[in-house]
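Much of what follows relies on a compact textual record of a protein's fold. A record is reproduced here so that you can trace the correspondence yourselves:
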Amino acid sequence: MILLAEYNKDPWNIDKSNITLAELYDMWWERKVPKLGLAYTDHFKMAYRYFKSLYKLKYTSIKAYHMQETIDNCGHGAGTQRAIKVLWWHLDKFALELDMAARSYSNLLKVAPAPETNKSPFTEEEIQTMWQNQNSPWVDSVLFLLYTGFRISEMLDLRTENVSLETGTMKGGTKTKAGKDRIVPIHPKIRNIVERRMEDGGKHLFSYNGKACGSTTYRTFWREIMDTAEMEHTPHECRHTFRSRLDSAGANKRCMDLMMGHQSKEIGERIYTHKTFDELKTAIELLA
């Protein structure tokens, strides 16, 4: 009874030397993933599929070459390889917290370099086409991305509690230190879109059937919108469009960096230049 009581005080105090990869993953998922945000769950689930041959292996016996093989043999490019490496990093970190390991092999992993991309921003005519079809299912999300600069994951992760119609602001962003919990003004042209989404009453601004919308589901909606409009764009090209249009309109560079969650390259801008909300609002309203 004493031993049982001690175990109930700390149910994680188990025989760590015999924990398998699958068991560690399940514990990590239960304890850590809820704190990371919904936007990442699809990426983790996808990456974990490539660990299948190692599921039953004791985690303490997994070496760097085992991890590297999951990357080398995945059969996909830089994006998937990075997702696999990131998952190994999270599991290594969790194993260190549990005192299961003394070193992190994930730091030794190599992934393919990101390929050069040729992003194609939306033209003004294509943006007008989106406005003309704004009442079609999920087209409002395309316009939202075009007028906020959010990443797809940041849009889907945006909670209504972080949207204020009173102050005209949204607080979101997840990817980097500079981008996390940044403030983005609500552009007047998408205020009605935000208001309608808020009226749906979901916890997330862009909900699907009352629940959070995963990135895989959203990309299906995106593909349907692009096919109907006879366009060839990715969601991330909305972010490129946002930046490009602001630049063409003469927006302040520091304001653009703050709204997009970029860290300015110039030390002077990064450390000494401060911008008020009114300046951010002035910058974003340069978008027609």
